[in-house]
Amino acid sequence: MPYTQNFDAHTADTSRTPSLSIWNDCPTKEIAHNPAAGYHFFDDFIGFPPFAEADDVGSNFGSNYFGGGSDGVTLAQLADTDFGQIQVAANDADNDGHVLVHGNAAGFARLSTSDRMWFEARISKASIADNAMGFFIGLCEITVPPTSVITLQDDDTDPDLSEDFVGFNCLAADGDVVECIYQEGGATLVNVGDANTAIAAATFYKFGMTWNGAEGRGGVLRYFLDGKVVQTLNVTSALSFPDANHLAMIWATKTGAAAAVLSQMDWWRVAATGGNT
């Protein structure tokens, strides 16, 4: 059953918890009792296994993840935190990066007219300086092993143009601006608009999305920053939109210069109905 608390999708919620404006109508309990009703996953990163992969050779690790990184880049749980957090570290050369995929490279959510989707992740990065670090957080089609080279090809490009994806992208060249983007694989990338005017360094933000396939002609995709709607896309049949392929939850980082930049994720959460059946 969905939450019953009141919420306001026009007011920011900077608390550590998932945003009610996103999750209020998610059938979490129904999914928990009936796997055929949909898919739900939440990870607070308590007990997360350390991971380091050399030369962008992707591999499975833990029970839920697939990842890959540049030589020497590590992904591990932070010590001495009240709640679980993971951190990308040791990325101290130009174009060093790391990518984390939930589901061992298998997608579960679709954005067709019969599907629904909820997504949110709480992340931060130590530096917002230009040419410091770029990132992508969201959902991506996985047809090839998602190494950091494939996912973010270099520090000033968007995600792999051959894949379907929807989410948030921060180019290293403009380190404090996060853009709401989507793309159908092989088509032109679409920048729906900025998610923010300027994020702050070493500050956690919640980036979220909802998709309601039954709403409107083709559906409505909403982007949220700290629980507040920042962009809305009305999808019609005239748009090239990733509406058929299964998408997986993904977080990718890319260093823009030869200096170490840290990035943390506090938690992420996803749910989908329709696409998992």
Structure characterization notes:
The longest helix has 6 residues, at 28-33. The radius of gyration is 17 Å and the shape is globular. Helices cover 5% and strands 37% of the residues. β13 and β14 form a beta hairpin. By secondary structure, it is mainly beta. The protein starts with 19 loop residues before the first helix and ends with a strand. The model is unreliable at 1-6 (pLDDT under 50). The strands form two sheets. Strands 1, 2, 5, 6, 8, 13, 14, 15 and 17 form a nine-stranded antiparallel β-sheet that branches. The chain contains three helices and 17 strands. The protein has a single domain, classed as Exo-inulinase, domain 1 (Jelly Rolls, Sandwich), CATH 2.60.120.560.
Sheet-strand content, in percent, reads 35-45%
Largest sheet: 9 strands, antiparallel
The CATH architecture comes to: Sandwich
- Which structural class fits the helix and strand makeup? mainly beta
The number of helical elements comes to 3
The pLDDT mean sits at 83
CATH topology: Jelly Rolls
Tell me how many strands there are: 17
Following the backbone from N to C, one meets helices and strands in this order, namely HHEEEEEEEEEHEEEEEEEE
Cα distance spanning the termini: 19 Å
Tell me which oligomeric state these chains represent.
Answer: single chain
Point out poorly predicted stretches: 1-6
Can you say what the CATH homologous superfamily is?
Answer: Exo-inulinase, domain 1
Q: How many domain units?
A: 1
* CATH class label: Mainly Beta
Radius of gyration: 17 Å
Task: Label the overall shape.
Answer: globular
Proportion of helical residues: under 10%
